[in-house]
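Subject: Sanity check before I submit

Could someone independently write out the structure tokens for this chain? I want to compare against mine line by line before I put it in a report. The sequence has 520 residues.
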Amino acid sequence: MIATPPVRTDAQWVTRLWMVIAASTAIRLLVAGTTGLGIDESYAVTVARPWSWSYFDHPPLHFWMAGTMTWLTGDTKAVLVRLPFVLAFSVTLWAVGRLGHHAFGARAGTLGALVLACTGVLGLTTGTWVLPDGPLVLCASLAVLVLAPTLFGSSAVVEGPVHVSTRRWMLAGLLLGGALLSKYHGALYGAGLLLFLLTTASGRRQLRTPGPWLAAAIALSCTAPVLWWNAQHDWVSFRFQGARATTTADWSLAPFLENVGGQAGWLLPWIAIPLAIALGGALVRRQTDARGWFFACLAVLPIGLFTASTLGGARGLPHWQAPGWLFVTPLLGHVLDQALARGAQWPRRWIPAVAGAWIVLVAVFTSQVATGWLGGRVVALRPPADPALDAFDWRALPDSLAARGIDITGGVTARSWIQAGKLGVALGPTTRIVCACDDPHHLPFREPTAGYPAIVVEHAQPWGRGWRPASVALSDRLGPLDSLGVITLARAGTPAVRLVVYRASSVLTASPMAMPVRIP
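---
Independent answer below. Compare away.
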């Protein structure tokens, strides 16, 4: 005789939601404290000070968060600058769980939050790293949650005379403004919400009230800092982001397949496939499942637009669609809930397997960053080619420079925005970091008038194709460079990163801002 699993109440599933949030937060805090800042994180922390209305790459919110932590603590340690992002994602998990609860029930909400916590790109990188996606998904999920109790409450009939109060719309608009201040993706969330309102009877009734229009006006007004800064700088941020999606090649299926595979890899394949099935089901049932259609509208534009653009030859990046997949997780939670209600056994095996796999992968990643132990087994993971070195901080550099009597009070010149970020984190928020390169991102706006510092520090990369040392590559900007030696930084006692230090004998007087900022 097969024992019947106990039926859990809604309160018990809400308790389980808090358990998911607590476990996820603890693991992400452990990752935040045991791994260094990645490339984009290091750059963000470096350019976040001094404060700016907006930035070359993205709207300012995540830069403001990182800069505030650096200002409050006087340090750039990974665990400190990542703390707001870890906590922000914990709130996002709660919001997504509550969204699923309002739409499909407490069990579905908790399972959707668990799925979100166990994805790769969302559950780990968005949930831990200093990236614009963290505040983006926080603000977007809270904005939708503000509307959900009325749209999906027990007394609401989704296709009936649902009324969302003007105050709720105004609060949702403010939160969508926060999403727009985080990443330009925020506009797609607003467009997805508009799509739902236009394609449902209750939504069209909402459009005849002032609420949605007030929300849109408030959200757009929040972008004033971005518009002000860009107006002062030839709209460089919009031109940069627009150029990244510009097609420069013939139509091809290869970038599309590569991008789809990349999305599956970032989400983790065993989650990506069920998510795609859940989204497809919601799209098919549009006429009969308004709640599923609501989440599909929020998800389909970021996923569809960035994926379809690759058909034109623009490769894009596979994590650009991740903010769309955020709102598919409640749909998958609903699918799992329905399967369990039918007595299906596969969710009872799949759910713990997914959670266990995520924990194992996080443990492998974290330990590789900290020790490089896989390099002894896989040649491709040995320094200097180990990609985990991207999250290895160069914190031993200041002591090594001091031991050699190298004075950096005038600042340091880097040869790329990537290396500039690493140097900024290692040398602290008060050290001038200037980039002598064609693609400096926000760095010239950070130091708009000063010339290049005489000390040059570069990450030696002889394994890269076409790599040339700074003594050759930068001679036209800095004049002859005198080598001051090589500094080797060790990871767990093993040499990992080689930094070559130069002194420019006759630094050119041209300022970094005089060099054109290249728009790829």
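---
OP: Matches mine. For the report I'm noting this point. The longest strand covers residues 481-491.
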